[in-house]
Amino acid sequence: MNYTAKMPSDVQVLNTVLMFFLILMNDHVILDYFIIILFLFSLLSFFLKYTLSIDEDALLYKIHIFTIPIYKKVMQSNQIVSMKCKRVGWAKKCVVVQTNKGLNVRIINFYPMEIYKDLINYADQRDIPVLKSKDYLILERKR
């Protein structure tokens, strides 16, 4: 099954507006170039899209700008060390997939919300340890 996520747009808008005002109010030329580069990265972040696919034998994590893939990670079940379930923010769930090699993958803000149950089922079927924090267990009981 495929799941998608995007960054919260309210944070992005605030960040972009603040960068724009920093460019207007700055008097240093060198600092201007640095802020302009940050401003462009902030604008590009509006178009980031994260996807996660759960297949029979692997998890496929991709990051796209527009439709261009910029990062792709295939995690076979034997490469996954553990999955840590946490609470992020006030009432959001997060799963950190820890792997032998490379970067760990944080799965947050993905839709549909069944992703967390599906990841835990995936881990249970393949004997991958799942660690749940106390806060995560509270969130599970509420829903």
Describe this structure in words.
There is one protein chain. The chain is an alpha+beta fold. It has 4 helices and 9 strands, in the order βααβββββββαβα. A 5-stranded antiparallel β-sheet has the order 4-3-2-1-8, with helices on one face. A 4-stranded mixed β-sheet has the order 7-6-5-9. Strand 3 and strand 4 form a beta hairpin. Helix 1 runs antiparallel to helix 2. The longest helix is centred in the N-terminal third of the chain and has 17 residues. It is elongated. It starts with a strand and ends with a helix. The mean pLDDT is 89. Keywords: Membrane, Transmembrane, Transmembrane helix.
- Give the total of beta strands: 9
Proportion of residues in β-strands: 35-45%
Q: Name the shape in a single word.
A: elongated
Q: Oligomer, anyone? A: single chain
Specify the structural class.
Answer: alpha+beta
Number of continuous helical runs:
4
Low-confidence segments, ≥5 residues, pLDDT <50? none
Radius of gyration: 18 Å
Strand order of the largest sheet: 4-3-2-1-8
Q: How far apart lie the N and C ends? A: 22 Å
Describe the biggest sheet?
5 strands, antiparallel
How do the helices and strands follow one another from N- to C-terminus? Answer: EHHEEEEEEEHEH
Helix content: 25-40%
Mean pLDDT: 89
Keywords: Membrane, Transmembrane, Transmembrane helix
